[in-house]
């Protein structure tokens, strides 16, 4: 009976995703830095960044996965804690702390703190004279919960996000609602996610309504039976088709007569901007390599005459007893790539070893 009820809930969730996809005007938002709390799109850990920056269907003991999809929170993450660090561009530091715990009656829970420190900036007056300095930072605190019956898991993230620029502040409350189906016999997982649904309850200035980085995603991860490879495909922004950044200042060319000609983006290009592709090379249970490709990043960040690896990412993960380490490099622009470092500790195993001594 519980299995039947849970199945009904899962399929109601699928139906709600379909409804939200049809309600694009109600949840419409703009890519390209024209909404608030855009940092919520950043991957939180090295394996996720290595697989293209977006993955909601990969299930393992990486405790950071619930930040991408709360339904990925599983019992293998019990008493696991993680620290993630990213030395971002121009001195920006991005770090994430996560922890997961399984309670006998309350189920599986996770908490996470993401923090971006943009550093110090010079403050100038109307004449350009330096009169001081100011700080800028973003943060989000996440509480996750998930439950499973049979091959189905549903989960939810509740997120409090904040952003500060000098004396200006903005705060928002957001939800992630995720579902995962794991095939009982084959290495096949399908995930669904409604991400960053919410609102800003305080904006930087009165009357400045901040849009949320809302997203609807679906993805799958599967491993062919006799291959040491696992493939992942993720489709994002399913609630709106055209997510190309359309800026008339850049998206035009000049013909021989000096007239502006608007550069058109093909249907195929628009379609593939929704997809992220990832691959894991499973060399052993303790060591894996990852690679990914994000077509949206490549098309939006490439130079006119130089790709510079935009949209490509690579990484490696290593487990040594109760510790996991991962490193990845994601390429966004000719200015260079971004490195992600992830450290995970299984405190449950460490405590058991100390008690046994």
Describe what you observe in this structure.
The protein is mostly beta strands and 357 residues long. It has six helices and 16 strands. Strands 1-2-3-4-5-6-7-8-9-12-13-14-15-16 form a 14-stranded antiparallel beta barrel. Strand 8 and strand 9 form a beta hairpin. The chain is globular and about 65 Å long. About 3% of the residues have low confidence.
- Average predicted confidence as pLDDT: 86
How is the quaternary structure best described? single chain
Strand order of the largest sheet: 1-2-3-4-5-6-7-8-9-12-13-14-15-16
- The helix-and-strand class reads mainly beta
Shape: globular
Q: Report the order of strands and helices.
A: HHHEEEEEEEEEEEHEEHEEEH
**Amino- and carboxy-terminal Cα gap:** 45 Å
Radius of gyration: 21 Å
Residues in helices, as a percent range: 10-25%
**Poorly predicted spans:** 21-30
Task: Classify the beta-strand content into a percent band.
Answer: over 45%
According to DSSP, the number of beta strands is 16
Main pleated sheet = 14 strands, antiparallel, barrel
* Secondary structure tally, helices: 6
Summarize this structure as a short list of keywords or feature phrases.
two-stranded antiparallel ribbon; 6 helices; 14-stranded antiparallel beta barrel; globular
Summarize the structure.
This protein is mainly β. It contains six helices and 16 strands.
